[in-house]
Amino acid sequence: MGREAATDSAYHSFHESEVRTTRRSYRGWWIAALTIGGLQSLALLQVVQQQNSLVTQLTSRPSGWTQLTSEGYSANIGIHGTTHVPLVDKPKKLLLGGLTPTADQRFRGDCWLFSLMGVLEDSYHRYGVDRGWLAPGVYVRLSRQAFGIRVMEQCRQRPTIMCPVKATSTPDGYRNPVLWGNTTEGADERMLYFMKSLADSALPDAVCKYTDTNAGESKCDGLEKALEWNPLHFNVTSADMLYEQTDIQRALLQKQRVLTLGVLMVVNEYYLPCTAETASHYRCSPGTDARCVPCPIERAFGSVVSGGGCCIAVRRPMVSMRGEWHHRHRGKLILLGGHAIGIVGYSDEYTDEWGNRGGFIIRNSWSDGLETAHGSSGRGSHTAAYYMRDIDEADEALACPNPHSPRSWSLCKTLADCHNPVTALEANAQRRPLTLRCIDNSADMFGVCTKNATYFMTNLTEWDEDGLFVACFLWGGEKDAPGHGNVCAPPMLIDDLASIWTPAVIEHLNDPGLCGYNFLPYATLDKLRSRFGGNGAGDFNIEWSQASYASQKNLAIGGKFAGGGKIATFDYSLLQSSTRVLPTIGRAGLSTHAVDKKGNLRPL
């Protein structure tokens, strides 16, 4: 399994299930989560099915938890009957302001944690700015590491179905089949409302470093001391679960705050033409290969079938290097797992590469580039403003050039043109890589180019109606590498080119403070919901104590503790060291920049 498979393989939240208080419902919730996500072992499923006593334990809630009565749940989680008034004069697009930057979950399956912390971070910013306690141009980065540890601690003390859980490697017979709170792999974001004991668990990011792997998920030196003097305190006064597009848009418009979104993820199946010309690259045998499947019925594949060829099925993830989530309208959808993200806006006008018009702008927790790939060539993203069409391609490239994506590569027609210094200068000024190197690292296409040789892309031509392209390249003409020639790659997805060629030199990477946003079409979300179920958005109303803000620290006299005639105060040092400037992107364009002699853009 690749990186992202490991990253989110344990996410097991089933967002359409209500939290009920009967043994049968709890067991059914687990079965649904395990079956739909396909994300935990069958052994764990069998163990949980047998544990009536354990499930019964989960129906009781010690102090520190919101009581899960049907009346209380309906009143606070918003599943009671409502009348949905149509949105009148709804704007065609909306993007929330003052968004805090994305964060990278790295190699861990704690997307739920990043989704929750994004909501907490944004609520802290908005709550403080609205009351004059925080400057609009700054934000406080909260610690994902510390909050994850606190969740594990609370879940060990008071296990609940919303907690992260894993199977016991050496089960103690019937009594201890699973370990509660011993992992951050997978959880339900709704715990933010129910787990009231977490109200003092939000800590500034400076408390400890986030670890890249699960091996260090419990490590945070200084955590106890930081909790003792922590000024941050929040209260989730209400929460709501939303499932329809209109309801989510209404919440964004009326509440003006970030929503969580639990969404199921799939891989799409595509079909590559196996012919005499492509057989060596696909390593297939036309007509006789056991992997052969019927080709799609469309004009591009007509010559394949008539020539005795066949098609080879390949699977690709649903998120492209353009940051667009998509599904195949005429192909198989294979369930991969689940993921938690944040909804920050919508656009009814943006159209993606696949022809889907309209969708939600989402804040993700993945880094960009080749090293993040699982089953694909890599990942990419954009600014939220890009999906609003508030800035053009040239401005966007200043923040999110996505150099690994073939969509970003510069074209040249002849070898003389490709080697012309002016061509190189213009390409660098636009942050579009020109010189490419063959890495020949694809899992499905082989020997298309000569490894480590230099190439230039000359064209990118659509081959069929379903995402396959043909790209042609000029050999760079190195004297020490004779025998190389110009090549045209067989039909493949644009992203697949990134596993065969890569920029020879990468001078500009995506700005993590501005990039990290994706686009999720309404059509794709609807397809996932109708096919698999399980997609829901969470809306949390969060209040923060006045003493949570450094500007109000004089109000914290008396703090948390007073004893022996001595009054203690909160410690704001971590809060102050975790306060950062809120990044912004301008719309002025290239006219506000000058190009230096190396082709780099410099502000005027």
TrEMBL record:
Q: Give the matching InterPro entries.
A: Papain-like_cys_pep_sf
Gene3D superfamilies attached here? Cysteine proteinases (3.90.70.10)
Query: By what name is this protein known?
Result: Peptidase C1A papain C-terminal domain-containing protein
Organism this protein belongs to: Phaeocystis antarctica
